[in-house]
Structures
1.
Amino acid sequence: MRLSPASPILSALTSIAFFGLMALPGAIAAEKPSVPSTATTSYLVTNDDLAGQLPSSGTFFAIGTSGALSNPNRVNLGGSGSGGGYFAANRVSMLSNTTTPCAYISLGGSNEVSAVDINTQQDIGNFPAGSGDSGHDNGVGLANNGSYLYANFTSSQTLATYAIGSGCVLQFLSDITPIGLHAGNLKGMALHGNLMVATFGDGSIGSFNISAGVPVSNNDLQNATGYTTSRFPQGVDITQDGHYAIFGDQSTTDTIEVSDISSGKLTKTVLYDFSTAGNSSSVLLSPDGTLIYTANTSTGTVSAAFFNGSTGKVTAGCTSKQLKGFANNWNFLSSPVAELPSGTGSVLYLPEFGASSGIAVVNVTSSGGKCTLTEAAKSPVVDPDSTSLLSIGVYPPRSF
Amino acid sequence: MRRFAKWALGVQVVGLAFLSASAQLPNCPVRPNPGTVVADALSLSSQNGVLQLGLTERNGVDALGYTHFCFDYATSTGNIEAPTLRLNPGDTLSLDLTNQLNFTPAAAIAQTKYHSMDDMGSMGSTTGTASTDPCQSKIVNFNTTNLHFHGLNVPPLCHQDDVITTLIQPSTTPFKYQIQIPANEPPGLYWYHPHPHGYTAFQVNGGAAGAIVIGGIEKIKPQVSGLTERVLVIRQQFLNPLSWIPGSYQLTVNFQPATFPAEASPIIQTKPGEKQFWRVANASTQAFLDLQVLFGTTAQTLELISMDGVPVTGDPMVTDIALPPAGRAEFIMTGPPSGSTNATFVTAGYNTGPVGNANVPQVLANILPTATASQPATVVPSAPAVRVTQRFSGLAAIKPTATRSLYFSEAALGTNPPVNFFITVKGQQPKLFNANEPPAIVTNTGAVEDWTIENHTGEQHAFHMHQIHFLVMAINGVAVANPTLQDTVNVPFYSGIGPYPSVTVRMDFRDPNIAGTFVYHCHVLFHEDNGMMAKIRVDP
C-alpha cells in the first residue's frame, strides 16, 4: 500500500514514529547504520527519474554472483522525476536499519522524497519538504546519516532536513539556503559524524555542523584550489576516519582535490590532475579507502586513483577503456557505486544517461600498486524503466 | 545551451507561433507578420566616402513574450530596425550608438545570475559605478552593450572594433564608432551585433543584428552585375533565453517568423525564372544551417559567389550551403518558373552531435513566381570598374611562420546547462574566458600561422576569429580542394571514437592595422558567453 503524504494513516504513523525521536534527539543522532538482519539479498536500486509522467519509479535489481544484475523489479513511486540534472546530486540514498532497511529515492518533478522498504520493495510513502522546495530542473540530491536525511532541492536552492523515523518515515524539519562564494547553489554533499561537506559548483566548498540535525555553517566557505584554473568541485566523499574530504571536479581532465578535515573544518585543498580522462564530477571512495573512483562523463570512461589514507596523497591509478555505447546509446556517465561494502568494492556500477539508459558493470582489480578497470562482458545492463538514469544505490551500502 | 534542445525541444519549430507578434512595442519597431512578403531592411549607403548614422539600442517584450533587442534608426516616418549599412572599400563608417537599454531581469535571475560566467568576473563586475569612459568601463550586465563589426578587417581598438574593453552603459550620450574600411576589404556581406561578453547571446537572441554590405563584388564576380539583390538576415529567438529550458525557438527571415506549419511561411517573390543575387547572413545565436532552394523536393543548383564576405575562387555550383552561426553566403539562385507553387528556401537540418542542439529541417520561406514581383530596390551595378587586388591574396602559397594547436572542450556539471566551455591552446590549462587575464596567444604583425582546431566535445562548434579572415586549409587532416577565406568555420563534433575532428586554418596577421588584442571564440553564442573565448595579442 502506498500512502500519500496527506494520508491520515501516514500522519498517525509519523506522529508515533517521532514521539521518541523528538524526546531523544541525541540518542537518535548517534545511531550507526548497520547491515539489517532481514534483507539478506544485495540489490542495486535505480532512480528512474522519469520527468513529465506519472508515476516515476525505482527499479530493484538483484545482485548475483560476480556482481551480475538480474530480476529487475519496478516500484512505482507515484510522483514524477526531473529527467536529469546535476551529476553530483545523488538521488538515491540507502538506509541501513536493523528493522526496516530502505531506499530513499527523490522525485524532482513532484518535489518529494519517496521511501521504499527494501525487504518488501514497496513504496512506504512520499514526503514533501517545504512548500517552496523544488527540484524540477536538476533533481533532488540526497544523503543520510541514519538519523537525518538531507535533500538538496536544486531549483529552489534549498536544503531540506528530514528526521528519519521508524519504518523509514520522514518528517520534514526545515530548510536552509546554502550559497557558494560565487552565487553557486549546492551540488554535492557528504556526511561524516556531525560534519557535512558541500560543493557549490562555482569553485567553492564549505562545511556544516549537523549535530542538531539542521545544518549550521562552520564558516569555512572557501575557494578550492582548482577555482583559479576553472576546475570546480562537484562530487564529494569523506574517508571512513573523517580525516579527509575528497572532491571530484567539473573539469576537462580527471581532477581530484583533497582537504584535511580532521579539525572539523575544511582546509585548503590539494589538487591532483590526471590528464588521462575528462570531467570527474562524480567521485567515490572505495570501501577500504585505497581507491578513488571517478566517472569521466566527457570521455565515457571510469578511473581509479590510489589514495593514501595516512597522508591524503593521491597517485595515478588506472582508467577503463571507453564504456560500450558512449556517444551513441548514452551521453553521460554519473556517480559510481560499488557492489561490495568492503575491499575495493569488487565491481563498480555506473548509470549511463541517454536515449538508452543502462548500468555499466565494471570489474575492479587492485594489487601491488596497480589496478585495472574492465567492463564486464554483459555490460551494460539495460534499465527497462528509465530513459534518464543518473543515480543508483547499492544495498547493503558501504558502512561510511 | 544544449542538452535540453536535444531531449526536450525536438518539436520547437512548430512551436509557439500561434499569435501575431507584430504589436508595436514601447521601444522597438513593429516586426512583420507571418506569411507576408519578405522585405529587405532599409539600406543606408555611404555618400562621398562616408556613411554617417545614429543607432539606438532598445529592448521590449512582444505579445508572445519574446524579448526584443533592437537597433533603432530614426527616420522622418518613425524608427526602423537594423538598417543595412552599405559602404565601399576605403569609406568611413561614422556610427553614433546610443544605449537606451532598460532590461530588468526577473528577481531570481538577477540574484542567481543566468550563467556561470557571471560568477567568474569574466569581464569585470556586474554591478558598481561605471567609468564615464566606455573605453575603460569595467561594468557588464544585461544593459551593457557594444558593437562588433563581424568580419571587417579593422583595428581592435575602442571606437573601432574592440569588444574586450569597450562597454557602453545606458546613457543619452551616444558613443562614437569611427571606422575606415580598408581599401582592399573584400566586397561582400558582413554584419554587426552586440558583443558584451556574458550577454551577447541574450541581445542577439532579441534580434540586435544587422547587415553590412561592402560594395564592389561585381568587380570580381561580374556575373552578379544587373541582378536583383536580396539581403536576407536569418535570426533566431528563444522564448526564454535566460533559462536553461529556453522554450521553443523560432528562426526568422528579416524578422518574419518562419514557423510553418504553425504559421504560413514568409514569402519571397521573384519574377518567373529570374536570376537573383542573394546575400544570406546567419545571425542566429546557435543555429547551424544547411541552406537549399528546393523545387518540390529537388535541390536547385546555386552559383556560390562568396563566403563570409570574400568572393570564392572559381564559380562553384552547389546544391546546398552549410552555414554556421555568424556565417554568410552569397549566391545566385534562379527563381521558379511561372505557375510554380512548390518552391521553397529551406534549411535541410543539421546533425550537431550527440549532445548538440536540435537543428531540424524546416522551410525558411516560400518562393513565389510573380510577374509583378515586389522587388528590393537594390540592383548590383552592371558596369564593373577596375579590378582590385584582393586582401589575403596568395595566402595559400605562403609558408606559415608558426603552427598552433587548439581545442574546444566542455565540462558539464550535469545533463543540463550551465556547462563550462573552453577553447584552449594545447599545453595550456583550460580556462574560462577572463578579460583580465593575459592573452593565450601572442604573435607579431607579419606572421602567417597555421592553426589546427580540434573538437573534443560531442557537439558542433563554430570557430570565429575577430579582425581577420583565415583560409580553411584542411578538415580532419584532409586538404580542402578549393580553400575558402572565412571568419567562421564549422568544427565537427566528436563521436567518441577515433581521432578528434579538426579543421586547419591559415591565419594572416600581415596587416599592421590589426595589431592589438582581440578574441577568437565559438560563435554558438551561449558557448562564448559561458567561457569558450580567448584573447590573442598581435604585437606591431
Note: Chain A touches chain B through 44 residues (CB under 8 Å).
2.
Amino acid sequence: MCSNIQLIFEKETENELKNFVPQMDIDEVDINEILPNTLQRKDLPIPNIPEVEIVRHFINLSNRNYGVDSGIYPLGSCTMKYNPKVNENIVRMPEFTYIHPLQEENDGCLELLYHISKLLGEITGMDGFTLQPAAGAHGELVGLLIMKKYFESKGLKKLKIIVPDSAHGTNPASAKMAGFSIIEIQSNKYGEIPLDQLEFAMQEGDVAGIMLTNPNTLGVFDRQIKEITKIVHENSGLCYYDGANINPMLGICRPRDMGFDIIHLNLHKTFSTPHGGGGPGSGPIGVVNELIPFLPEPCLISTQQGIVCNENNDKSIGRIKAFWGNFGVIVRAYAYILALGAEGLKRVGQVAVLNANYLRVLLQKNFNLPFNRICQHEFVLSDRGMPNEVTTEDIAKRILDHGIYAPTIYFPLIISGALMIEPTETESKKSLDYFVEVMNKIYEEAKNDPEILKNAPHNTSVKRLDAVLAARNPILHD
Amino acid sequence: MNNLITELFKLDFVPHDDKTVKEMLNVIGVKSLQELFQDVPSDLIIEKLNLSSGLSEPDLIRQLEKISHKNKVYSSSFLGAGCYFHYIPSLVDFVTSRSEFYTAYTPYQAEASQGYLQAIYEYQTMISRLTQMDVANASMYDGSTALAEAAIMSTIITRKSSVILLRGIHPEYVEVIRTYCWGQNINIKSANEENLKDMLSDDVAAVLFQSPNFFGDIEDVSNIIKNVRDNCPNCLIIQVMTDPTCLGVLKPPGATDVDIFVAEGQSFGITPSFGGPGLGIFTAKQKYLRKMPGRLIGKTKEINGEKEGFILTLQAREQHIRREKASSNICTNQALCSLAALTYLLALGRTGLKEVAKQNIQKTHYVKQKLSEIPGYKILNKKPTYNEFLVKCPDIEFLIEQCRQQELLPPLKLTNYYPEMKSIALVCVTEMNSKQSINNFLEAARSASKDNVEGQ
Amino acid sequence: MDYECPNNLKYASTHEWIKIEDSVATVGITDYAQYQLGDIVFVELPEIGMVFDRGSNAAEIESVKAVGDLIMPLSGEIIGINENLADNPENVNSSPFENGWMIKIKFSHPSEIDELLSAEKYKEIIQNEKH
C-alpha cells in the first residue's frame, strides 16, 4: 500500500467476462436490424474489474470508514443508535425483496404498511399516516404541502411559516419548496419560544403555522409547548412537529398531546434503520383526523376485503414519489417496534435521556455549557472559553484521533462554536466514560499543547483536508 | 406466565443494568428516571403505550415470516413499468453489508470517512462515464423525485415558470412532478411530438421527456433536441430513464446535448422490494453544477500535506447552509443504494453490461416476433424498443390469469393508468426471462388468443 | 479585531462598500464581511444590463460554510462585473476593496447616496455587532 489513493478504475483487466449474466438461450438476430446504428453508443468507458479486486477494494475502503458498529457516534439530532442485525435478515427474505410494487399478490406488504401506521399512530398519538416520504426532509415537504392544500380548501391564503432560529436547515428549505416564506423567531435565554413574539407573529393573519421540534436542537424540552400550540391554533394556524428529536419521548410523551397536527418521523434515526452513510431513510408523515383526506396518494384503508387503496380523493395533495415508499427501510422499523414492544420503547426514551444527562454533567466541568439545565436526548457545548483559542473544529478533529466519531459541529447556529452531543440509549456506561476521558484529554491538550489540536487529526488515513480547494476547483469524478 | 417472565423475551439493545442506572442517576444528581422528564408537563406524561410486549428474535422472525408469506414470489416476471428484475451479483450484498458502510452517517468528518467518500466519488465517476454527462451527484431519492427536482432546477436557472412534459413519461412520475410544481407555482403543459413546436414559448423553462419511454419506445432524441433548440433556445432539455441498463447499448445522453439527465437506478443492483428504496441518478452539464441539488463528493488535498483525499463539497448549495434560500431541501439521500449501483456496475463491467443490454433487446424482440404470430395479438410500438413494449390482446384478463397459473408475474394492464387503453398490455422481458419462461408466456398467450377464445 | 475601513468610501449597513465616481458606483463587500464568510469559493455575479432596485440581491458570495448576498446599495443598471472573480474568488478575501470589487452600477437615483454611511458610522456598526 504505497500510493495514498487507488481508485478502483486502476484495477482494470482485459478479460471479458459475462459471469453475472445468464447464458443466452434464444436465437439472436443482427442487432442492427432491431436498433438503428444511430441509436447505439460507440464505446462504453467503464472498466472490467476482476472480482477479487473488487472485494479487496471495498474491504480496504471499509477499513477507512467508521459506523456505529465501530464505536460511539454521538452526532446530535441524528440518533445514531445500534442497528439490529435481525432486521437485516428479515428484510432480505425473498417474499420482501422480490415483490414488484405493481403486482397484485401483495397482501403481506399492504398489511405491513397498514399495521406499522397503526403502531406509529399509537406511539405518536396521530390518527393517520403515510409511509411514502423517502426521508425526513421529504416528509417535511409533504407535511407543508398538506398545510398548503388544507388552507386552499378553506379558501384562505396563508403563505408564511414560523420557524425558530434553532431549526434544522431542512425546515426553512422545505417551507420554501412548498411555496411558503419564513418568519424566524429568536429563542429566549432558556432555549424556548417566547410566547409574546409568537403571538405577535401569528397576528399577521397570513401565517399558516409553525414548524417545531420538541425537544429542540438544544436538547431542551419547551415547557410551554401546550401554550405554543394553543396560540397557533387560536390564530387558525397548524402545528408541524419535526420528529428528528422524538427518541427521548418514546413511551413518555406524544406529539399529538403536545398539540401538533402534522408530524414526520425519521425511521433511520428513532426506529433503528441503518443510516447507510447518507440514506436510504424513510420519513413517514402522521396527521390528525381532519387532515387525513389531504395525505398523498396512495392511501391505505382497512376494509372487509383486507387492506386496499383509497382512490379518487380530490383533496389529496397528490403523489410525492413513485410506488409505495422506501419499503425495505419500513420493514426494518416495523420489526424494531414489534421486537421492543411497549416496555422496550419506553426504556429507549428513558435511557436516551439518562445517557445524555450523564455526559452533560461530566463534560460541563471543562467545557462551556450555554444551557445548563436538564436536557433530553442531547445537549450542546460551545468552544467559548477554550484555552488558546482552540475551536470546535479542532476539538472534533482531535476526537477522531482517538478512534471515535465527533459530535455534530457548528449546529445549531444560535450557539457559537456549537458541539451537539447525542449518545443515544445503546451506549454503555463504559463507552460514555471513554468519551468523557477523551474529551478531558483534549481539554488538557488545549491548555498545554494547542498546536496538536489545531493540526488534528493525526491518526486518520488523511490529515485535515482542504475544503476551500475542493470548493474553488471542484473535481467531482475521474 | 407472569409479566416479569414475558418481559425478558424481547429484544433489548440498552446495555445498562439496574445498578448502572442507579450509579448514573447519582452522578447526574436526580433520584429517578422520572425526574429527568421534569420539564414535560405532567399531564402530557403517558402511563404506557398500548402496544403488545416485545418479541425475542425467533418469535419476531416467525411473525414477519407470517406476513411475508402473504406475498407471492413468482418464478419469472413479465412486468416492468418502472421496476425491473435483473440479476444482482452476490458481490453487491457483500459490499453493502459491510457495517462500516451501512451503519455510518453522512460523511461530514471527512478524515474518518475516506472509505465511503471514495466509494461515492467512484460512483459519481462511473455514472459520468456511463451517461457521458459532465457531473453526477451522490443520489436523489428515486427517478420520480429526481425528475421533479430537475424540473424545479430548470425554473431557477432560466427564471421561467413553466415546463413541458412530453407524452411517454411514466404516469406516476407525471403525478409526482405535478405535486412538486404545484408547491412552487410552476405551470405544467403537456405535449407530444407533433405539437411540441407549437407549445414552446417564452415562459418555458424546460422540456421533459422519457426515453426509452413508458410505452417502450426509444425516442428520436436528436429530433426532440433539434426541435427545442430551434424554437426555444433558452429552454433546458431534461431526459429521464427508468431502466438505465439500456446504456449498455444505447447512445448515452451526454452524446446528445441533453442538459439534465436523471434515471431510476434500481436496475443497478437494487432489489425490487415493493418499489423502494430506489436510487435517483442525477446528472447535468458542467455549467449547471452550482444549481444542482444533492450531495457532491470532490477530490482535494491535505491542507498541510501531500496526500489526496475526498470531501463533501459545494455544500453552500445545500439546505444546512442556505436554509430557505436552498433550491432543494434534500439531506439524507440514498447513499447505500449508490454503493450498490457502483458495485453492480463494477461487477458487470463493460462486457457484462453490454451483454445484459443486448439480451434485454434480443429477448424482447424475440417475444414481440412470436407474439405477433399469434392470432389476435398486435404489437403497437412503431419505434424500436428496449425491454418493454405494448401489445393489444384478444383477452387480456384471460392472458393474465393464464400467466398466474404458470407462475409468471403477468405484464401490466395499461388500463391501470390509462382507462381508455383497453386490452393493451405493457410487457417487459429482461435477461432473467429464460427460454422456458418465455415459452410458458407464449403458451399462456396462445391459450388466450383469438382462436382459442372464440373456440370456447 | 481591527477591520479595514478606507475613509474615501461609502458603506451600507449590510456590509457593502461603495466608491462613487461621477455617475458610476463600484461596489464590493467589506473586510468585515469577507472575514465573517471565510475563504470565498465562488461569486455569482449578475449579467451586464440587468436593472435592480436598491435593497435587492444582486450577487451571491459563497464560502465553504456560508452564503452572503450582495445587496444593491443604490438603484440602477449593472454596467460592469469583475470577471476575474470567476478564476480568483480569493481576491475578495485578500483585497476586498480593490481586486475584490464585484459590480459597477450606473445609478438612477443620486439622492440615495445621502443614505449611505460614512466610514466612521460603519465602524460603529461593526463594533456593535454580535459575533
Note: The first strand of chain B starts at residue 76 and ends at 77.
